[in-house]
Amino acid sequence: MTAASGNEAPTPPPASQDAFAQPTAAPAPADRFDAGGRARPGGLLVCVAALCGGAGATTIALLMGLACARHGGAALVCDTGGPSGGLAAHARVSSGSSLAHLSWLVAAVRPIDRRDMFATAGERLRIIARPPQEHAAGDEGGLRRLLGDARAAHRLTVVDCAAPGTAADRLALALATHTIRVLPASPTGLRRAEPALHAARAPTGRELIVARRDSGRPAPVRALRELADHRGAPLVLMPAIADLDDPPAALAAADVTLQAIATFLAR
Asked: Which pTM value belongs to this model?
């Protein structure tokens, strides 16, 4: 075996690392660790998981990205695909590729055009989301690399997990630094959420329960607190957000909830 020549061309960076690169990215903090206890530099990776349909997870995911960008941080919000297409509809933009398709490109070390990788919603917010489509299974190794590169390039990466039972959602939840589980703040919402909570991974200590209130209806606060206490998670109530077409108004309406989420993420 011969020693490597000093004239050899350097190994090119992964395609997603190059595409995600920020023009003036600040150094990312290196205070997070992977499952093996190894230092893993990068920003936060937060999974927002709906405990039932219509819980409001997509709304929270997008508002978190908007709030981060509004305060000067680079943010990426993405979904794992599926028939709802909620994130693309709420953000009113769609990316050229889905997260699953990008994971295959990364796994195959294929070049990725930034214009196909993500859409932009303002100067500092990026969106990876497609219109409604069937769930596509991505490549696990590619998705790991993709989310790792996303963390390295953004202060905040949010994954909207609309169907936590799929392989992509399970992997994102396993890699997340924090998890936010969302349900409607109603007796029906509690009943619908219980099966999903029973099937969820054991609490990690970095889990938050957000209950979305419906206008004009009292919330079963005691029952919601019992559910959160059972998971060892803080509980945050969120008002109903009627319209995301006016981002400043939506951010103002959700300000107290977003401040509580920011406090949770800072732990």
From this structure: 0.84
